[in-house]
Write a structure and sequence with these properties.
- The chain is an alpha/beta fold and 309 residues long.
- Helices cover 34% and strands 29% of the residues.
- It has eleven helices and 14 strands.
- Helix 3 packs parallel to helix 5.
- The chain is globular, with a radius of gyration of 20 Å.
- The protein binds adenosine-5'-triphosphate (ATP).
- The site of adenosine-5'-triphosphate (ATP) has 12 residues, from strand 2 and helix 1.
- GO terms for molecular function: ATP binding; ATP hydrolysis activity.
Length: 309
């Protein structure tokens, strides 16, 4: 892998009339990273992503993707990246399989559409028209399209929209597999919880400026990182409780009724707990975390009470 950054914003400003959406943004994502791009509504995340995909020109500054100029060489860039856009509308009358065929053809790739549809869990709906897909199924379809051609960089704009808890877990597994294969992941979200569970590093954008950039572990070191995870399950079994107790980072497990586990744990262990429950054959129906400290830190950054060092 070369040392060329996967993404580089160099002093990028974007103005829409009187509104300055990005103020001299500097941001570098190295190859092989999973980078979380966080910020509240209106912070400028979509504007930054639209500039790097050449949907918008910057007012000033330069953006490169895998060493190529985002504006002058966007066609080359497209051959090497996969994108899960924020608000993708499928072609109502085409089936899931036809969407994949189209994505494979336009990338000159040789993927097997069935294998990709299976990987995202919608092979059974391959021959149904995508107009009838649920939100979560559509999101899975778009993810399959983003994986076509083993992209070097995958850009995910608010990827968990519409996914149920199992869908979010599966998406996380796929992102990690892609990263192990060598892909860089750039993941935008306004929800801290989604990003911290998976990213190596996060950048927090506010009013078009990067107000913090840190590894998740450094962010957590600034807080008291113990959290409480509440998991609604199909049934509490001795085996599932024992499985949760044996996960690294878990300090306490309690059951409330026949279908809820309350787990005290290190914030990093959340998904390992959900996976451990799943592995015992008990279904995870929903989960919720109470992580005031990290959330407080995030809101302090995004509300402007803390500024970057
Ligand atoms: N086409 C446009 N014309 C005028 N203003 C725009 C345009 N696109 C974005 N903006 C403004 O730029 C700022 C940044 O918007 P942007 O959509 O990039 O934020 P965001 O972080 O993606 O927000 P969200 O999480 O709500 O999607 C906002 O003030 C927005 O109103």
């Amino acid at each position: 892998m070369s040392n060329t950054p996967a993404i580089q914003f160099d002093d990028v400003t974007k103005q829409f009339g009187d509104v300055t959406a990005l103020h001299g943004l500097d941001l570098t994502v190295e190859q092989g990273e999973i980078y979380g791009f966080l910020g509240p509504n209106g912070a400028g995340k979509s504007t930054a992503i639209n500039i790097l995909l050449d949907f918008l020109p910057p007012t000033a500054g330069d953006v490169t993707v895998l060493g190529h100029d985002a504006q002058a060489e966007s066609a080359t860039i497209r051959e090497h990246i996969g994108v899960l856009p924020d608000a993708f509308r499928p072609y109502e009358r085409l089936t899931g399989r036809q969407h994949l065929d189209f994505a494979i053809e336009s990338k000159n790739a040789d993927d097997d559409p069935e294998e990709l549809l299976d990987r995202v869990g919608i092979l059974g709906a391959a021959d149904r028209k995508a107009g009838g897909y649920s939100k979560g199924m559509t999101q899975r379809l778009v993810l399959a399209m983003a994986l076509v051609g083993n992209p070097e960089l995958i850009i995910l704009d608010e990827p968990s929209t519409g996914l149920d808890p199992n869908g979010a877990l599966e998406m996380r597994e796929i992102i990690l597999e892609e990263n192990r294969r060598g892909a860089t992941i750039f993941f935008s979200s306004h929800i801290l919880e989604q990003v911290e569970a998976i990213c190596d590093r996060v950048g927090i954008l506010r009013d078009g400026r990067l107000v913090a950039e840190n590894s998740i572990s450094d962010l957590q070191a600034q807080t008291n990182s113990e959290s409480v995870l509440t998991v609604a399950v199909s049934a509490v079994t001795d085996e599932s409780v024992a499985a949760v107790q044996s996960v690294d980072g878990v300090t306490n497990v309690q059951t409330t009724g026949a279908d809820e586990l309350v787990v005290k744990l290190d914030a990093n262990s959340k998904f390992s707990v959900l996976e451990a429950i799943d592995a015992t054959g008990v279904e995870v129906r929903d989960f919720d975390t109470d992580e005031e400290s990290l959330e407080d830190l995030f809101s302090a950054y995004t509300n402007g009470k803390v500024t970057a060092e």
